[in-house]
């Protein structure tokens, strides 16, 4: 390699690091957080709308597929939170630790990343499923993710008056004090199934 080419290689590497640092800084801003929330809902509604436009002749089947997609996402939410965000992968664990330290911070994925992943998922599902079903399933999973993000936002930033809403929010607040319990944010379903539901010591019967 000639001497004239070496600086350009170093410049490209520095440029790559600079781009990653810029994305990291952007990911901790309020604007990225709010734009990401909006983008997640837009993509989910776009996929569901496209599925309806493509085939709206079987509404009962469509409803079942949407419920299935939301159910699938409920496990994705639990699995990612338990085994990635609290797991051995530093990239995920470090970012989530920061959230536990500063729960009112705006750290989140780059706004463009989840929509890109969802669109890739829709394309992959279309290879093995009829197009309308692929759009419905991926749209429902995307809707689950959007609802998860919105739920997480309001749980940390709003005080609820309704008793049921307070109990729902309290489930996640408990997780911040007991990080090995209550991994579900939108629903405690998988915590019940997989044994990570928090039970206070006062409620445990002494045998």
TrEMBL record:
Positions of the Fatty acid hydroxylase domain: 66-196
The keyword NAD is assigned to this record: no
UniProtKB keywords: Endoplasmic reticulum, Fatty acid biosynthesis, Fatty acid metabolism, Lipid biosynthesis, Lipid metabolism, Membrane, Metal-binding, Oxidoreductase, Transmembrane, Transmembrane helix, Zinc
Stretches that traverse the bilayer: 33-54, 60-80, 109-129, 135-155
Membrane topology: Multi-pass membrane protein
Chain segments annotated as coiled-coil in the UniProt record: none
Major subcellular site: endoplasmic reticulum
Cofactor(s), names only, from the UniProt record: Zn(2+)
Localization per record: Endoplasmic reticulum membrane
Cell division as UniProt keyword: no
Name this polypeptide is given: Sterol desaturase family protein
């Amino acid at each position: 390699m000639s001497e004239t080419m070496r600086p350009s290689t170093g410049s490209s590497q520095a440029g790559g690091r600079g781009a990653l640092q810029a994305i990291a800084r952007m990911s901790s801003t309020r604007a990225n957080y709010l734009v990401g929330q909006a983008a997640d809902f837009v993509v989910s509604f776009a996929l569901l709308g496209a599925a309806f436009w493509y085939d709206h002749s079987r509404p009962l089947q469509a409803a079942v597929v949407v419920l299935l997609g939301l159910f699938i996402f409920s496990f994705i939410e639990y699995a990612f939170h338990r085994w990635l965000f609290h797991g051995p992968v530093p990239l995920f664990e470090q970012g989530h630790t920061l959230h536990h330290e500063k729960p009112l911070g705006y750290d989140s994925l780059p706004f463009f990343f989840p929509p890109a992943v969802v669109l890739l998922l829709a394309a992959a599902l279309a290879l093995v499923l009829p197009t309308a079903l692929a759009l419905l399933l991926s749209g429902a999973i995307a809707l689950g993710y959007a609802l998860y993000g919105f739920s997480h936002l309001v749980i940390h930033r709003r005080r609820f008056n309704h008793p049921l809403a307070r109990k729902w929010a309290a489930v996640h607040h408990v997780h911040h004090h007991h990080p090995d319990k209550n991994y579900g944010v939108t629903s405690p379903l998988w915590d019940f199934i997989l044994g990570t539901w928090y039970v206070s010591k006062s409620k445990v019967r002494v045998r």
